[in-house]
């Protein structure tokens, strides 16, 4: 880190991303049958594996974001997850209803934007306000 404020800004970015994933993962868990039905209706393959995996990724990924744990590998993993879910879950090109297509388009690009945020976390690391930051040697740059 070159400025003390950077760790705080990175922490806020991590929490902002985490809120979405924690909320989404918990809602998927609470409405699990509906989530599975949605995936089946979209033609997503291997729903029996994909549904619990998606819930686990979103809840655990959200917790890791808040804690700042293993942020660099998490950043790459979550960026890929966001792109895969954009393509499988928000396939606007297959929707004929104009209002639904617009909604799917917005969600598709939201996922792409989140992937960009995760790639930035891969580059910056967790910042000082994190488990990763606490584990970084004091003489280091603090970017883990």
TrEMBL record:
It holds the Pfam family DoxX. It comes from the Bacteria. GO terms for cellular component: plasma membrane. It is found in: Cell membrane. InterPro entries: DoxX, DoxX-like_oxidoreductase. Keywords: Cell membrane, Membrane, Transmembrane, Transmembrane helix. It is a multi-pass membrane protein. The keyword Amino-acid biosynthesis does not apply. The keyword Transmembrane helix applies. The chain crosses the membrane at residues 7-26, 46-67, 74-93, 113-134. Belongs to the DoxX family. This is DoxX family protein.
